[in-house]
Amino acid sequence: MIAITILLVFLAGYAFCAWGVPFLDNIGNTLTVWFQKIQGKMAVIITEYSVQASQLKKDTKEEVSTHAVGFVIPSEYEEDDEDYDKNL
């Protein structure tokens, strides 16, 4: 009786390894491909938005200053030649 039980457990393990593991692997691969498909569609949408944003930048043709907060770069430099001459 114990020999039959051991044989049945062995055959169940063999069947699981032969058919169960590849079946679960295929299900996992199918889910992975499905998620990658969704990710690809999202990447296409993001790329379209990026193209639209760059097109809007080209259309506006405005210079946007991107100075750090607290720092200002003057657009024109004033030269103080008179002060330099006085100090000499």
Determine the number of helices (DSSP H or I, runs of at least 4 residues): 2
H/E series, N to C? HH
Give the biggest sheet: none
Helix proportion range: over 70%
- Poorly predicted tracts of residues: none
- Could you tell me how far the N terminus lies from the C terminus, measured between alpha carbons in angstroms? 115 Å
Mean pLDDT equals 83
**Global geometry:** rod-shaped
The percentage of residues in β strands lies in under 5%
As a whole number of angstroms, the C-alpha radius of gyration is 36 Å
Count of extended strands: 0
Briefly note the structural class of the backbone: mainly alpha
In short:
The protein is mainly alpha-helical and 88 residues long.
What does this structure look like?
The protein is an all-alpha fold and 88 residues long. It has a domain at 24-54. Helix content is 75%, strand content 0%. The protein is built from two helices and no strands. The longest helix is centred in the middle third of the chain and has 59 residues, at 2-60.
